[in-house]
Fold these 2 entries.
Entry 1:
Amino acid sequence: MGKEFKTISIPTSLYKKIEEIIKGTEVSSVSSYVTKVLRESLSRGQEKHDVFSKEDEEKVKERLKALGYID
Amino acid sequence: MIQPHGGRLVERILKGEQKKKILDKAAGLPSVTLDAESVSDVENIATGVFSPLEGFMGKEDFHHVLKQMRLSSDLPWTIPIVLDVGTEDAAKLKAGGQVLLRNEKDEPAAVLHLEEKYHYDKEEMAEKVFQTTDAAHPGVAKVKSMKDVLLAGKIDLIQESPTSFARYKLSPKETRVLFKEKGWRTVVGFQTRNTPHIGHEYVQKTALTFVDGVFINPVIGRKKKGDFKDEVILASYEELIKNYYLKERAVMAILQMEMRYAGPREAIFHAIIRKNFGCTHIIIGRDHAGVGTYYHPYAAQDIFEEFPDLGIIPLFFRSFYYCRKCLSVVNEKICPHPPAEQIQFSGTKIRDMLVKGEYPPPELVRPEVARIIMEFKNPFNE
């Protein structure tokens, strides 16, 4: 199974700017740079869910008390 | 509180009527007996340690993880979580059906909703995960000994298997409540498979200076010969925390899981796990999860560059040593003195002294910790 890629378009001026920025760095290509920046950006908007209910939380607290983790 | 990896803490534990239903029909289900490491994987999936995984990986995720270090959803994930069975056993199982997973004592541990069976290339798996196919590498040896077919599908835990360390076993749900109760908004995770020396303590306390609490999280499970026994690690850390840490700033709980010794890939995996436990930061030191000379000492730090979307902040530490001139624990960035003044925190050296029955000097190991280790007749795995 090879890597799967899609082609997207960005303005030539932006492309050239990125080329300049990554010169001499470990980033191997404009595509790698854009991928990295997008992943970073998208991770900030990750969907958030409540982890557990109040009832669950109370049960957990009882166990933590019994084990001596909380007073 | 930091979000779990993938945004949702997985919980797949059967309770009440659901559990009874499965147990009632358990005798009629095809079954597979797991080794202790796979039982730990099942429990880690079920309790959310491996969130967002809900079961053993299918072929698509498996290949994505090997080749791209990401799940097919693009979420960072570096270690395949798979369940191997022999060809004959696999032939008896049907995709779409349920499989009872038994622990080593033959007790029902979980039910697998079998979605897929597939073959895989062990050489490829070893090469990608461990960057070597050398059978002397413990992770490679494990892969080479695996059976030929992988089973994939969601699991539901029936019951946790007994452990001698139950008192230290917390799920991510529990650590998250614990951190909240302690009022910690920022928490640094410390992964360990060793008894603590002064260098470890210095790293933890340096990190703790910048966050609200430290979560010391020893890995309990299969390790290599010569590593400290699990009970020794726990007893020595108990002693260290009791004597040298503020109770409101440090907690310890175990992570029941085998070490893979996959160096950089495992560092990312460890970071994801600590994120699920609710840590905002993780300490990554020299040769994290490494073995022998298979990985560059700082490869496990460099790899984080590839994961800007990991969601947990790594704190990178160089090697520390004790300087006789500075009279303190230092590193190359802050100490101007020559190597002759340095006492290195060499695990091998400390181990050799303990084997000979000698107490390591207090610059290397706290006397209380050394005493606890010495109380064990044989503190090392055989």
Note: Residues 30-44 of chain A form the longest helix (15 residues).
Entry 2:
Amino acid sequence: MAVGKEIRTKIKSIQNTQKITRAMEMVAASKMRRAQDRMSASRPYAQKIRKVIGHLAHAHPEYRHPYLQHKETVKKVGLIVISSDRGLCGGLNTNLFKSTLNAMKEWREKGAEVELCIIGSKAASFFKRLGNIKAQTTHLGDAPSLNDLIGSVKVMLDAFDNSELDRIDVIYNEFVNTMTQSPCVDQLLPVEASEIDEELKHHWDYLYEPEAKEVLTDLLVRFVESQVYQGVVENIACEQAARMVAMKAASDNAGDLIGDLQLVYNKARQAAITQEISEIVAGAAAV
Amino acid sequence: MAMTVHVDIVSAEAEIFSGQATMVHASGVMGDLGIMPRHAPLLTKLKPGEVRVVRSEDEEEFYYVSGGLLEIQPQGVTILADTAIRAKDLDEAAAVQAKERAEQVLKDRQGEIDIAQAERELAEAMAQLQAIQKLRKKLGR
């Protein structure tokens, strides 16, 4: 029967799309699991190093590291923007870019220049025309290693060392839960002191081996790297969660669409059959 | 009961050890360290080498770190390792291979950068091997 051929092809094509989105949903779900594991595995290091830095900020060292010194006027800001490499993950990247643009606008209104360090190819293509890109890393994959990030982070740190930047922020998606991911902006440098511990209020300092300067530089560089790494790992978990949710919605929508089309098709088919019968009956009556 | 100090060993990719210890041995850049409870606050860089955590008189644990930082606070000792591996997970064959490769590069002597990197790799491989041998001696005893 030649009824509703177009409708049937349409249904077929939507079914194929639904198969793909469903597969992507499942892949994202299993990848999210692993990304979450990785996120929680790297968290202790980030916490511990934050704690050490907190202690350090309250010590009374003979040497003040530039990373710990707050400047009165901020003339140039470096933003490290962490995005995903791939699309099809709902509004994840769009929201991130929006808050990045807001941050950039705010700084510009205060009279500060903004320079960008891009991680992830989505941000790279978005900010190509919009900002002054200093460094860029893309295609980190699902299991990024710290080594892949060191290069671009170093570019920013060097700029800070040479007083080309007065402040460095990192922007990434924070993993709240599977359904919610929110863009968040963290200040990296200069390091902000955390809440003071009661025990640490008295006057004290570390013994440093070797020189204070060398140890502190090492520690602070590691701190920045680990914070950026944590951001990247968290962003990947966000990406997979967002993709899972987006693909689930797509599969559901495809199901609805197929249902509607099926109804239209059945109606057309029924009408065709009724028409055929009435034609036959009319023909028989005429004879 | 002997006095103990809380020890945390973490690497960027995972938490390795967390618990009480009576003594911690680590190799700092300025020399080996033996840390007992109530040590003064200290911040030092670590060389590639083994970290030995003495949990009690007859219980010790070995770890291998490829460098990092060590912090001592009254509340505890924190080791921020670049990479830390439990000594028993170390692969001797791989370490020997890495050592030979580094020695080969040193022998050929090409660019400056190559040599610096090879020397570092050699130091790392040697430290890994030493950690393995020490562990083996201990287990054999």
Note: The helical segments of chain A are 5-58, 92-109, 121-126, 146-161, 212-286.
